[in-house]
Design goal:
By secondary structure, this protein is mainly alpha-helical. The chain has a single domain (about 10-120), classed as Globin-like, CATH 1.10.490.10. Helices cover about 65% and strands about 0% of the residues. The chain has helices at about 10, 15-30, 45-55, 65-70, 75, 85-100, 105-120. The longest helix is centred in the last third of the chain and has 18 residues, at about 85-100. It starts with 7 loop residues before the first helix and ends in a 6-residue tail after the last helix. The mean pLDDT is about 95.
Amino acid sequence: MDIKQLSLFDRVGGAPVIHRLVDLFYMNVLAEPKLAPLFPQDMSLVISKQKQFLTQYFGGPPLYTNEHGHPKMRARHLPFPVTKERADAWLACMQRALEETTPEVALREEMMARLSTTAYFFINKEE
């Protein structure tokens, strides 16, 4: 099979890489003063859902939809004040996690391009 026919999920290394990415990402988020206050003290459900969502988002099995229904991610983020500054901080946390989990620059760039579109779509409040 041609590598370009594989999903992004498969090209980055599947579930083990996505799980490590999410774990590192949330360590970064909790250390980021612009983001940490938006999250609950017990992060286990958030982390679990993010692993399911990113698995699906990058072309793996539809784990999130199978368990929780349609993601409706913009609607789910509306209760939280998402500014451009927070979206940028979120993306910076993800970039750092990707640098630790995904050695191939082209894959990181592809993932960040997809995530950037989504992060900026969630902005719902002016600075």
